[in-house]
Amino acid sequence: MSTTTRLTALFAAAAVALLPSLLPAAAQGSPDSPQYAPTMLILDASGSMQRPDVGGTMMDSAKRAVRGFVGSAPAESKVGLAVYGTGTGNAEADKAAGCRDVQVLQRPDTLDRGSLTGAVDGIQARGWTPMGVSLRKAAEALPSSGPRSIVLVSDGDDTCAPPEPCDVARELKQQGLDLIVHSIGFAVDEKARAQLSCMAQVTGGTYADAADGAALERILPRVTGAALRNYAASGTPITGTNDYRTAPVATQGHYLDTVGQHEKRYYGVDVPADGTAYFSGVVSFPRLPDINVADDFNTMNIRVFDRDGKDCNVFEYGQASHSSDGVTLAVSLTFRGAVQGAAGSGTCHGAGRYYFQLDWDKVSNGLPQRVPLEMMIGVEPGVTDRGPAASEIATAFTDPGGAELPVTGGGSLASAATLGGAGRYTDTLRPGEYVFYRVKADWGQGLAYRVNFAANGGTGTKATSNIATVLYSPVAAQVASDTHVYTGTDVSLPNSDKSIATVPIRYANRDSSTSAVTRQAVAGWYYIAVKLGSPVEAGDERAVPIRLDLSLAGAPEPGPKYASGATGSVTGDGSKGTAGTQAAPADVSSSDEGLRGPILIAMAAAAVVLIGALTAVLLIRRRRG
Questions:
Q1: Does residue 181 sit within a domain?
Q2: Helix (H) or strand (E) segment spanning residue 575
Q3: Do 115 and 20 reside in the same domain of the chain?
Q4: Residues 61-73 pLDDT 10s
Q5: What is the structure's pLDDT at 550?
Q6: How many whole angstroms separate alpha carbon 349 and alpha carbon 340?
Q7: Helices marked H in 99-182 — which ranges?
Q8: Is the pLDDT of residue 26 over 50?
Q9: Residue 190 sits in which domain range?
């Protein structure tokens, strides 16, 4: 088989790569009442925060950073504040009391800027560092259900363990809480960095370093903004291995692992006769304002191996740079080697078990040693009827008109806001944010959209930043993108065309001679990402109102007829995957797959119906409340 390569270059100016996951969108509130994830800030007030920093002490710098965030946070957000270390000194005689010293100064109710600022101003640093206990108390202060976030700022490691902070974070996650912990190390050593990173990683959050007070003032609003947007690396836990012979075997679904720098991870997938496998990986890096641009480049590769570990010469890679503004790196591969009679020879063709190797190859200087890794795996049976012929005619954009509906974009595709079809949708982005929305396109339908960035009163270089939008298919393939410069005045994307658009979604599109059309061969949720970069010059952090104008055209058509007799979503929308331990490699017979295909898709369809029903009930109850 000939080598296939595709560069996932997302933003020409910022090279910011984004990838969707396939979990259903978290409830972000009704269009009339956009909701952010309730978030608790935990602030370190241990005695070590009395160390000197520019403009006073480290505690003074932390207070300025919190005040800066509070001043720019969305009015609809729910932010609380907890602190540890204020009640006693840090002498050994004070330790027992000091290790219980965690105070919830403000519960995560609708933002009260004055109350939060007053609470912060009154903090005095003097005591111990009970991080594990503080995590538990902050979690207790948050609502008992729905997406929740914690942002913890510490200048050192836990001085009170047990409980170990990472064990507490793991315990909270194992309780099934939809809780993400983001952590910031304020001038920390390696021991503290490892502890803080672990808490973030086991909950799917992010870790960032702040070398000094000035860096913390830049980083805290951005990390807390991401927490409010509820970015959550999520999925069924799986642990890839460095050898295909011990690799876990995964079914169709959405998974969560971790990956280290320059590390290769293997995963097995059983592919049916004449079938197609989809494999995508995504990592999100923390914003690193002080990174050296010359060292700011990341790549991730996917390769396919046969049951004996032979390289099938099928290769895809994604790249991303500009980690100084935050970045998500994505790569997606479509494998059709199971099609009988395809070009090539040997065991890289036909039904059987294949191994997908994911490799974080090139790494920006200063990134964490290990980061959360999200994966989407899709398995599609062969077809007996491909349905209507391929189409390369782009969907025409039609101004949807009508009332503007407020929405709150998710911080990842796992929490993408659902758009109910054609319409005008509004949101507000802060500098450094990229947010996600999703819209369903059935077989035969096409979508087209524009994103309008409104004036925000800023002018000059301080207001200048990059803006971008990316459209993804249900199998995490980039369909189209555009980028431009924002200078504080009205501008739209795409900048030099009427809209970003798909063709009618058809199975036969995968054989088009146009590469972009081949990525529009699966019906389901299509994802729209919108990016507002940080200003070129620090000092103007004004939010920017946006309006997304969306049109959806075409009547639904019959989809392809699969060999198993099943129809439905290839990606198992709304389903989670299952991962087992390594089994002896074996052929997957067509009779086995004839059962596997409809079972998987029927389970996915049932999940979609159940999720839709539950969502409807929740929305009705919320509106009545």
A1: yes
A2: none
A3: no
A4: 999 999 888 887 8
A5: 98
A6: 7
A7: 113-121, 131-141, 165-174
A8: no
A9: 39-229
